[in-house]
């Protein structure tokens, strides 16, 4: 399979509202995490950090321009691979131990990380069988209701267990923007990992449905508006209640 140069590994696309989408286009869409960069007045925020097969700090200059807090929506391999590169790291209390001591098992690298999840491989010496997330102990432990303050922007932490025990979403009330992680996005949702919980998932979706949301930036697949957000959640809830 073709190897990609490190300078070509990432795609960077500036959106509205001071948000930049960073992605790894050579990872197949189902496995490809959305990395979100949010510009604030006092500091910036990074929501998730991809697989970590190519350095974000070295090859995406945007993430080194200003003081930055790297937030983990949860601790699966595709979301925390570059967290170790950042000095300030935040995660929900329920998954702080995983961020500090990741393994192939507890990050779901087993069984998902194989050459088959790529359309082209990362640069050498990458090896799927050797892949492992590096330790990145949190410098801030998050709980439901906490606020990440960027100076002129405030994001509320919403604990959304279900996909994983420490999953979170980040909500900016002023703009009605939601960074939803993997609890809801416009694609097939994963509800059966080793630490998923059906009752928690149901409660999280019921809670999210009450939130006034204008725009959603999910953990996977394209962003979408509030109408689609409510349609997705209602459809999911209706399916569960049959």
From TrEMBL:
Residues 32-220 form the Metallo-beta-lactamase domain. It holds the Pfam family Lactamase_B. One of its GO terms (biological process) is antibiotic catabolic process. Keywords: Hydrolase. GO terms for molecular function: hydrolase activity. Transmembrane segments: none annotated. InterPro entries: Metallo-B-lactamas, NDM-1-like, RibonucZ/Hydroxyglut_hydro. The keyword Ligase does not apply. Belongs to the metallo-beta-lactamase superfamily. Class-B beta-lactamase family. This is Glyoxylase-like metal-dependent hydrolase (Beta-lactamase superfamily II). It comes from Shinella granuli.
């Amino acid at each position: 399979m073709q190897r990609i140069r490190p300078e070509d590994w990432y795609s960077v696309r500036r959106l509205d509202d001071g948000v930049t989408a960073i992605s790894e286009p050579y990872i197949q869409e189902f496995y490809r995490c959305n990395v979100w960069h949010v510009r604030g007045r006092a500091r910036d925020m990074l929501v998730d950090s991809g697989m970590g097969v190519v350095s974000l700090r070295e090859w995406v200059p945007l993430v080194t321009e200003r003081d930055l807090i790297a937030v983990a929506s949860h601790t699966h391999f595709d979301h925390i691979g570059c967290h170790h590169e950042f000095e300030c790291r935040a995660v929900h209390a329920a998954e702080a131990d995983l961020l500090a001591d990741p393994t192939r098992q507890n990050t779901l690298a087993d069984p998902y990380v194989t050459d088959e999840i790529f359309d082209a491989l990362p640069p050498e010496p990458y090896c799927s069988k050797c892949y492992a997330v590096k330790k990145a102990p949190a410098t801030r432990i998050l709980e439901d209701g906490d606020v990440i303050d960027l100076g002129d922007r405030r994001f509320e932490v919403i604990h959304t267990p279900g996909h994983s025990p420490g999953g979170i979403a980040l909500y900016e009330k002023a703009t009605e923007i939601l960074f939803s992680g993997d609890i809801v996005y416009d694609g097939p949702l994963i509800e059966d990992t080793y630490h998923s919980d059906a009752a928690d998932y149901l409660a999280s979706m019921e809670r999210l449905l009450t939130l006034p949301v204008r725009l959603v930036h999910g953990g996977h697949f394209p962003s979408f508006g509030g109408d689609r957000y409510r349609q997705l959640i209602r459809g999911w809830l209706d399916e569960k209640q049959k």
